[in-house]
Amino acid sequence: MFSFIKKFFERRKARAAERNRLCNDLLQQVSWALSDYIDASKTKESLQKWIDDKSKLLVELSDISEFKRASCYKQLKQQRKVFDEFYTQAPNKIKAFIAEERQKRLDAEYVSKKVNLWASEQKSQKIKASKSKDLGRKVAKLTVNADELIPAIDVCTCCGKDGKRKMLYSTEGEALIVAEHRSKEIGIPLHVYPCPNGCGFHLTSNQE
Ligand SMILES: [Zn+2]
User: Fold this and answer.
1) CA 150 to ligand 1 center in whole angstroms
2) Which residue, of 31, 63, 90, is where some domain finishes?
């Protein structure tokens, strides 16, 4: 109800502003026209011409004013129609847009999940196919680089069953290599899972 009243006043204000603008336009045209005569020599003829032209000018101005007013109202009406249409359709358009974006995101998440799964499956198969000797060499290489893991360990607070900090691996590949190597050593399958704090990857013997 209030929005209807508000709209009414807004429209009236817009019309008044347009009318003021037109009045100013006309005033300016009149003053320009007058300045032409004032600059001219003040002879009787020029004054008579001014009087004659003034009446002509007034007719012309009123024509222009009518024309302008008509076109301005038409414009305002057109604009109002566009705005009205926009505001009627806006809620549905926004809803549709949000739904579309949400679906796009879900699709993207689904695809990225599938790709990640496929990639880790490939990695895991490649690692499982490696010889123990090669795995041992890779693990030894990782231990050399273990110093690089220290900053990430500071953020990760994950602990194992023994209450000790869990070993953190910065990439899934490293974790898979270590998991495979140790699985072969201890005879218990180890699984790789992402750190819940997003720091990297951990190993677990829990079946998921
Ligand atoms: Zn962690």
Assistant:
1) 12
2) 90
